[in-house]
Fold:
Amino acid sequence: MSETFDFIIHGGTVYTPGGPLELDVGVRAGKIAALGKLNPGSAARTYDARNLMVLPGLIDEQVHFREPGPTHKEDLESGTRGAILGGITAVFEMPNTDPATTTAAAINDKISRGTGRCWTDFAFYVGASPENADELYALERLPGCCGIKMFMGSSTGTLLVADDENVSRVLKSGSRRVTVHSEDDMRLQERAGMVAGGADVSMHPEWRDVETAVRSTQRLLALAHKHRRRVHVLHVSTAEEMDILAQHKDIATVEVLPQHLTLAAPECYERLGTLAQMNPPIREARHRAALWAALNAGIVDCIGSDHAPHTLEEKAKPYPRSPSGLTGVQTTVPLMLNHMAQGRLSLQRLVDMLSAGPARIFGIAGKGRVAVGYDADFTVVDLKAKRTITNNWIASRTGWTAFDGMDVTGWPMATIIRGNVVMRDDEVQDKPVGIPVRFQETL
Structure:
């Protein structure tokens, strides 16, 4: 008598820890139960993956979904709906909401809000602040918490840990990896007069210059070594930082964004205006080239979207009153598949940075690979599909993308979470199934 399964993916090429193999995947009780040649008739539900690549579920470890707070821009339902349309199976949501996520009650409130409404699995960061710095050891261990987020430079929201004394307090409290927005707030304040009276948005990378990023990252690394605390440096945007971070891989992991890998100044500001405005800024082509070199040298550990939506009306305000942030959770996978099609990175590297990398960095339990016993999360892609990214495709409440009109090769065809097909052929399926991401208990 043959084994029976709840769900089988058959006929496709599956990206396993050993590389791409032509085999079937059997799912039982939301987990991968078998890999090999399986009989599709032995499952109640099947997915025909012929001519498609079945990747381990892709994870976005940096999104801003605005709930609670300015939910006219985004909420947990719309943000995660965009995620599954873009092939993302799990998200880590940032703490600069209103109110900020700085307490156990705030984490629990977000989990309550997400339950039954999130299309993806989810986890939430606790925001570090001078007020809660000594409580972070307990907060980072809350169920559904992916760790601590520290803003060393002011960005969107009120969370800020700018000086070395308070950065040290954060790094001394707890043991999990601390995720950091690394811009030096003192230098930002010193240089704010450059744009305070109004300026062209092309001044954004001049105000938030290379030295602003480098100075902060150097301070962070020195303090991380002093306190023996692992750090994860988000959205690295400069060639100089990559040179520095390459010497500190014992304690620092590195994220880059598709925006910084795809766009470059000054062209992006001339074409997109404030729609290209984000923190840290999109910089000149030499920095983009350095990010690609670092990615292919293994210095970069993961790719996140930094999905940070604002309405077109808000973005239309004159700089610098215009808010910083781009949509991105829905476009990361098509953009990176297109970069792969153009020869800039391998499929192996893409999977490592969007699935295995986040699992490794954050100690995620049961995700990040196609292997028996792991969650049955899959991003099914057509590597040869030719599509055009458009504003009409974007599920975000803001309804726009900086990549509107861009032709790409490679597209997510299905998003499967714990054996549930939640997106198929650009259409959302059934109902939200997201639950909190689990983390390894040894951390």
